[in-house]
Amino acid sequence: MPSFSRLGNDLYSGRRGIDVMRTRRTWYLVALLVVGVSVVLLLTRGLNAGIEFRGGSEFRISDVATTEQAPAEAAVRSVVPTGEPPRISTVGDDAVRVQTEQLTEQQTDAVADALAQGYGVSRANVTDSFVGPSWGRDVTTNALTGLGIFIVLVTVVLALYFRTWKMSVAALVALVHDVVITAGVYSLSGFEVTPATVIGFLTILGYSLYDTVVVFDKLRENTEHVLSSSSRTFAEAANLAVNQTLVRSINTSVVALLPVASILFIGALLLGAGTLRDISLALFVGILAGTYSSVFLAPPLYVQLREREPDIARQRERVLARRSGAAVPTTGSTPAVAAGAAATSAEGGGGGTSTAVLERPSGARAARGPSGGQRSQPRRPGGRRR
Length: 386
Hints:
It is a single chain. The chain has 14 helices and six strands. The protein is α+β, with helices and mostly antiparallel strands. The protein folds into three domains: 4-48 and 136-306, Multidrug efflux transporter AcrB transmembrane fold, CATH 1.20.1640.10; 56-131, Alpha-Beta Plaits (2-Layer Sandwich); 311-345, no CATH class.
């Protein structure tokens, strides 16, 4: 079993690798299924928007002996018998957070007194805060505006850097893939979407874009002179670039996931830190989705867009014709190779637009060199040989 470093060397040199371009429909299907499930979850379950987006009142009870939700539920219902049910969560080992709909000042004081009595703490251990609906709308608008500006800047920068809009399109598809999947996981898990979550979304977009740009930069390097090459097609050169950066993408993702996983599973789930949980889940899911999209989604999509160009198509036909033509004289060639060679020869002979490059048989030379024995002699003007 080769080591990981040996595998990386083999991938970089092309001795082995994953044929991402040939199997791109499989990678497209996987991405489409996950994105489809995420969209269904978003449409049916929706997102659990935090109080910063929807507005309302929040109470925090500290130094409690128990973190059960029953006292909080009873305290809120004693003051507000109808309306939306309160959202109750545990913060750490001795604190409880209660979020309700918008309450009046009298209702807020009454709920705080009932919470203190229900958990058996003093009134000073219950703090309350209020977020108005207008402020929540402003936060939502600013978050969407920031996301839109980010996407526009990414499109412009990629188009200028790589000198082609097709890389921008492929990168944007990868970014949408990452955001939709991350949002779907939030919908499935029920985690609150807070301003910290929005920060996490923007962070994973930057990380995914960084990984995609690295792959694209290597892809551009490998395909810079591909039109004058007769050994590799554009797709094969791009596939080599993906395999050459595959180990690097895996290593970078693993190194990034280790601290994020520590924050998510230790800091958030065990310690109950809400802000850490909100941002760490977005980072954890986004890094995984970004690694997949930067390797198996964006490069194949870019290659598929480029293969429609006439120059790329002609270069591919030239490479394939050269390969099939070289295999014609081989007696042990497979039926598929022979059929491809025959089709190429027929195409070249019928229209005269493409020519199969064949190697000249060594025994078919009419004139031999000094060591070959006979060679043709020039004729005299009278018709006799010298």
